[in-house]
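ARCHIVE CARD
Drawer: 12
Card no.: 0347
Subject: one protein chain, sequence and derived structure
Cross-reference: see card 0346
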Amino acid sequence: MISIRRTTSADADFQYLVGLLDQEALVRDGADNAFYAQFNKIDAIQHALVGYVEKQPVGCGAFKPFNAETAEIKRMFVTPEHRGKGAAGEILKQLEMWAAEAGYTVCVLETGKKQPEAIALYSKSGYAVIPNYGQYAGVENSVCFRKERI
């Protein structure tokens, strides 16, 4: 059973998990990692979640404003030993609820084609593939998603 705590990007457990995420992304994305890393800074995120199992941080996620009605989901990660147990889905659901409380009605996000688990999660969570937006437009490895009425 996962318990989830709201926090900010200043949180030590969130930073720890993002460090693990960055290490995994470096392996998965290889040479493309430097491009993505520039858009994944966490210095001023006000809406971050950390998931715990038996008081150990095992997953995280965050959102930030994209525009007046849209929140962008960022930094989703679950440690390998806790994958496939519903943690990522619960973190995503909690992020959507928090974004709705903050007045957002839509969520968008970007993930990579080399993250099939993430693509599966977003697809089964009601997200639809959209044309790549912003800095991801024209990026072959990127897949962008949108969910209305969160």
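Annotation on reverse: The first helix runs from residue 12 to 29. The chain is about 30% helix and 30% strand.
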